[in-house]
Amino acid sequence: MTLEEKQKEIVEDFAIYDDWMEKYEYIIELGRDLPIIEEDKKTKDRIIEGCQSQVWLDSSFADGKMHFKADSDAIITKGIIGLLIRVLDDEKPEDIAKCDLHFIQEIGLHEHLSPTRSNGLASMVKKMKMSALQALTTNDSEQKA
Amino acid sequence: MDSTIKRKFSVREIREDFPALRQTIYGKNLIYFDNGATSQKPQYVLDAINQYYSKDNANIHRGVHHLSQKATSEYEASRKFIAAYLNAKSSDEIIFTKGTTDGINLVASSYGHLLNAGDEILISAMEHHSNIVPWQMLCERKGCVLKVIPINKKGEIIQDEYEKLLSSKTKLVAVTHISNSLGTINPIKEMIQKAHAVGAKVLIDGAQSIQHDKIDVKDLDCDFFVFSGHKVFGPTGIGVLYGKETLLDRMPPYQGGGDMILKVTFDKTTYNELPYKFEAGTPHIAGGICLGKALEYLNQFDIESIKKHETELADYAQDLLLTFEDMNIIGESKKKTSVVSFIVDGIHPFDMGTLLDKQGIAVRTGHHCTQPLMDFYKIPGTVRASFAFYNTKEEIDTFIAAVEKSIGMLK
Ligand SMILES: Cc1ncc(COP(=O)(O)O)c(C=O)c1O
Q1: Up-side HSE of residue B98: CA atoms within 13 Å toward CB?
Q2: Is the separation of the CB atoms in B284 and B264 below 8 Å?
Q3: For this structure, is A99 an active site residue?
Q4: How many CB atoms lie within 10 A of CB B355?
Q5: Strand segments (E) across B246-331
């Protein structure tokens, strides 16, 4: 599935909920299902401090694809992280770097990603994109070398 | 508004005065329990804002024309009213600021100018960041020493420790009247007396008290008292610094510019007298006028009826919250205002706040700009419901049902 198709799929998943509380019930469930990040990986360099909740992000690059693991102390934040990872995990860095995460707007959760929301999610997305860019440049230089 | 005969305290009628309370959020009637962050505005204040900008708008203190004089006299009348409301000696002791934060920064800068290396400043462990950081900056600048008065688990300043910290080196004690995170009402009158006994001055952060109680600066004998207009039913961007005249006179100006000068030459500038010495540039004229209107509005009521109603609300909410399992009330002082801060074991305040929001209830979650205090309790933050006199028990019932639903979803 392409990154675009995954976004579309999420939007369709959410279309069945017309009530906010149901939507959040689903997000909370996603949060519970998210594989947790190992405690020893919750280190200072992986932490993204938000004003409201904290996020840990572990990015890696292998076989031309980016891989993300993330966690948060707040379950709703974690659920939204689950959605972001579903879209961005196992994708090529160049696709991640240029992608527009429009699904968040379409399912009505964009407020969580606004930089003023300060739950760490906006910074997390930025960090995901940055690590993708970094992977791109290291990849390039490795190929040249 | 005539304040000699007090208006009957009727919550139903008061609610009619606040248009913002009549709206729906996500299809639910708004329940506004974030009064600690900012209060809603009564029509009386909204009309005054409208009147000012649509009819009376002119710059003050500098025009001979009719409108300028009208605006000036209203602005100054408001200052007089506020002086009387706070029982200040004269309106020269009332400096208009941008708010609490601005007032504290003014004192830290100008009173701070009179301090020397080694002088000590005391704050409490429950201060808002705006009553911490300006003092840290001053200490860095001048080599003063910042000391923190500890609190107990209930969220009360430990008076014995306070007395131990006081010495002839203490030049200033800066404490909050009421904690925004805990609701604790500090015994500031006694604390002021103790500070004066060692020759220290006292600044009271009144951001959370001006809307809940009668403030009498003469009776308190505080040296500085600061508050924000927006938390007391007035506009944002305006606040007051009360300072004793003798002290303000000794302090150098804060910012330079128009209005704060008597005469400017390139060789030497002489400063204006109080209160203008501290008000550089065109002030927030509408704000100044309408802050007076907000206090006028509040002053229609007997403050004791307001206090009684608000205390009932807080007690009612707290008792109902405590029926939930794993519920922790943060801030358990006997002397509390209408703030209920809580955290449920295993539930992050952000999650609770998000779900309450979607049920039409506005509360504040997080550290409430008191990170050191949250560190003291070893929690990431709290959910805080803060009530105003326009809130009702019915709203609390709805809130409790929403909390129950949220716990059910999150546990
Ligand atoms: C106790 C206390 N002090 C200071 C402030 C800062 O007030 P402002 O942001 O209006 O300057 C607040 C506001 O949250 C407060 O509650």
Answers
A1: 10
A2: no
A3: no
A4: 25
A5: 261-264, 269-271, 327-330
Q: Which residues in chain B are classed under CATH 3.90.1150.10?
A: 11-32+302-410
How large is the ipTM? 0.88
Q: Are strands B120-124 and B145-149 parallel, antiparallel or unpaired?
A: parallel
A76/B354 CB distance under 8 A: yes
Question: What is the CATH code of the structural domain delimited by B11-32+302-410?
Answer: 3.90.1150.10
C-alpha B213/C-alpha B209 separation (Å) is 6
Closest CA to A87 of A48, A47, A132, A49: A132
CA–centroid distance, B200 to ligand 1, in Å, is 23
Which fold is adopted by the domain B46-299? Aspartate Aminotransferase; domain 2 (3.40.640)
**In angstroms, what is the C-alpha Rg of chain A?**
15
Q: Where in chain B is the domain with CATH 3.40.640.10?
A: 46-299
Q: What is the pLDDT of residues B215-228, one digit of tens each?
A: 999 999 999 999 99
The residues in B 257-296 lying below 8 A from A, measured between CB atoms, are none
Q: pLDDT tens digit string along B196-254?
A: 999 999 999 999 999 999 999 999 999 999 999 999 999 999 999 999 999 999 999 99
Closest alpha carbon within chain A to B347: A74
Active site residues of B: 369
For residues A52 and B368, is the Cβ–Cβ distance under 8 A? no
Architecture of domain A3-140: Alpha-Beta Complex (3.90)
Question: Which residues are within 8 A (CB) of B244 and not within 5 positions of it... i.e. 6 or more apart?
Answer: B89, B93, B223, B224
